[in-house]
Amino acid sequence: MKKTCPCGAKTKPLPCSKVFTCDSKCKSQRNCGRHPCNKRCCAGTCPPCDQICSRVLNCRNHKCDSLCHAGPCYPCTQVVEVLCACGRTKVAVPCGKQRSTKPPKCNLACEIPPECHHPSRTPHSCHFGRCPPCTQICSILQSCGHHCQARCHSAVEVLVRSDKERPAGPWELKNSPDLEIHEYPCPPCEQLVRMPCLGGHDETPMKCCESRVVSCGRPCARKLECGNHVCQLPCHEVENPEDLEKFDSACDECSSLCTFKKPCGHPCVLACHRGDCPSCPETVRVKCHCGGMTLKFSCGKVARLTQAEKNDVFSCKVQCPALMSCDHPCTQLCHPADQPHSLPADCKKKCPLKCPCGRIREQHQCAKVLAGFKLVCDEECHAQAKSRKEEEETKIRLARELKEKEEALLQEQYDKKKGKKRPRNRYHDEEETPFLKEHWKKIAGVAAVVAVAFIAYIIQTV
């Protein structure tokens, strides 16, 4: 007998006792709507799907572990932890929500090691992405000896490609900015330093990078090599700026004349110099001790002489003109005033000596004369004296007579002027001779001279 299989797809003659089933697999979908029945010769009663769903859930992380079913899967039942950047702060969210859930705010300090030379970053909280630029002071020791005071520059983010560049087309994603880390050298040191001037007079505050030794413009004021004047050049470079007085080879040369006065009172004619002035070359005129001669010497030579040497040099070597008590010059050569003159007892001058009447005249030493030596008149002297005495008496008598005549003549002239007549002396007129009338003036003069000589002789003999 022909039998039809339960699925009705095939017929086959078989005995009635046997059940005919074909080998065709059922192509109908099971209740899940995803898997075929695959049951052999299914009669249309497909069993429920017994496979695991295994569809990716909305979380995109897990698969559905339920039996395969129709419709959407149930939400994922897994719990996922959303971490902060450092992973020390967590928050539990359903799986699949971690993408839309913001990471928890972490108040712990960021532990990312610094990219610059500092041992640690500027304290800041945990974060995602790159750490903010280092804001610490660089502090690198520079060649000038100062620490860099600029902001850290050993790890600086430099923009290589901007995010503002337009994509070539809709198929290109928007570019993210490209940053590179660059290390820059330290900027010029701007720390203020006090720089002394060239001559060491003053210090000027300057930036270290601009520091240089400059002139303050003041006069140098260091002693010149002469030791008397100071350098008037503007502040200049010297070997030892600390010493503001010591002469330096760079200082100006002294062009002044020496201003010191020598002990003699003459100015020095040399250029300004160190130490004592040399011997004065001025010529001085010095009177010798006796004052009779003017001697010429160089002033320096006179200043160097001792008192004993002056006594010898200032002597003109001529006999001293000072008179002794005997009225003869001193026997010594020209000598100082404080040195006593020679005594009259040493006088060797010849003195004219005469007898009392003056007839005998001889030369004898002054010392002998002062000792009391005298000449004595002889007999001839006495005879001549007697003869002279008689002559003098005659001259005196004649002079007296002549004087009486003169007085009488004057009286007569006076009387004539008054108009009186004087009685004429007969005796006088008779004695008046022509010789007396003619030479009476000469006779009167001779008489006067004789009278004076006689009076002097009388005084000397007395």
Brief digest:
With 462 residues, the protein is an alpha+beta fold.
Describe it for me?
The longest helix has 40 residues, at 379-418. The model is unreliable at 425-432 (pLDDT under 50). It contains six helices and twelve strands. Strand 9 (283-287) and strand 10 (294-298) form a beta hairpin. The protein is an alpha+beta fold and 462 residues long. It has helices at 299-304, 307-313, 366-370, 379-418, 426-431, 434-461, and strands at 2-4, 11-13, 79-83, 90-94, 156-161, 178-182, 192-196, 203-207, 283-287, 294-298, 350-354, 361-365. Helix content is 20%, strand content 12%. It starts with a strand and ends with a helix. The strands form six sheets. A two-stranded antiparallel ribbon has the order 1-2. A two-stranded antiparallel ribbon has the order 3-4.
Q: What spatial order of strands do you see in the largest sheet?
A: 1-2
Task: Please estimate the helix content.
Answer: 10-25%
Major β-sheet annotation: 2 strands, antiparallel
- Mean pLDDT score, rounded? 80
Q: Nearest-angstrom radius of gyration?
A: 80 Å
Shape: rod-shaped
* Count of individual beta strands: 12
**Low-confidence segments:** 425-432
Total of DSSP H or I helical runs spanning 4+ residues: 6
What is the straight-line distance between the termini? Answer: 240 Å
**H/E element order:** EEEEEEEEEEHHEEHHHH
Strand content: 5-15%
Return the structural class: alpha+beta
